[in-house]
Amino acid sequence: MTAETTAAPAAPPVAKKRSRTLREFLTRNPVLLKELRGRMRGARAFVVLTLNLVLMSGFVMLIYTVYAAAVNAPYGGTNRQMIGKFVFYGVVGMELLIVCFLAPAFTVGAISGERERQTFDLLRTTLLSARALVFGKLTSALSYVLLLLLAGLPLQSLAFLLGGVAPEEVIISTVMLITTAFLFCSAGLFFSSLMRRTLGANILTYAFALLDTLGLPILLLAALPIFGFMSYGYGYGSPPRLLVQLLFAYGLGALISVNPVATAIMTEVFLVDKHTVFYFTLPFTTSSGSTFDAPFVSPWLVFTAFGLVLGALLVFLSIQLVRRAER
Q1: Inter-residue contact 185 to 107 (CB < 8 Å)
Q2: What is the pLDDT of residues 99-135, one digit of tens each?
Q3: By CB distance 3.0 to 4.6 Å, which of 85, 147, 229, 288 could disulfide with 164?
Q4: Within 10 Å of residue 3's Cβ, how many Cβ atoms?
Q5: Considering the entire predicted model, what is its pTM?
Q6: Residue 287 CA from chain centroid, whole number
Q7: DSSP 8-state secondary structure symbol assigned to residue 103
Q8: Where are the domains of the chain?
Q9: CA 105, CA 87: separation in Å to the nearest integer?
Q10: Residue among 122, 118, 101, 156 nearest 31 (CA)
Q11: Segment of 219-223, 271-275, 300-304 carrying the highest mean pLDDT
């Protein structure tokens, strides 16, 4: 007598986890999809992009014409490299100012505008979470700001044709521009979540932008004579103790590293003078007359960390404010 063996049913095939494409990631958030479609359907987005490129192109042509007319041999060796540097500085400077004062405008009415149109309560009654609402508004604004920055890359590439610009300068400037855009978009979103009216959010957001871009450099200029006196004494005896000099120097460096304009300038100065990207040393004189080399981190690294941390904190606070409004 033979025992009949029954074959076990075959296990169903394990479905492989399919990686999401960029299109699926963008369309998964309905707020992000709606904001992107609404922003790019009208003529406003293309008009702003065109005016941005026209202004930057005109500024680059002006820099090139003025500097080429001021030198004896504009196409020779060193002069050509200097023109390339001035063109690069002009484009990056314009993009930095555009990011500082135009990026907040894309998020300053993100939440307060919904309240004014009386659609905020309708959004909160849906299954959409506060995090999805905030990230949708922020990502749509950042996407358009990144489009403006990418559109200016061909103008930056003119500096490579003229010479005088290193690849690390382009990488550092791009990282700083993206960080600045994220910081100011997050600030606009935070004040939009905090205030019930867009006018109040506009005032607070641009007060924050002016304080960061103009207020801190004024404090920096006021602190420079004090730093020089404490470091070198200006002939009034020996310099102070090394600890006092280091505390003031690191405090001055921190003040520089929270301002995007000052950070860009000082990073370029240290890059040209010290030939370093990440860190450098500065000599300090002790009371005994000997020198001490203190290590410093490049300002663009400190600003990048500061901007990302502060921007993430502002986004987190925006989510909490939206949730509190729901309760």
Answers
A1: yes
A2: 888 888 888 888 888 888 888 777 777 777 888 888 8
A3: 85
A4: 4
A5: 0.80
A6: 41
A7: G
A8: 27-216+302-326
A9: 27
A10: 122
A11: 300-304
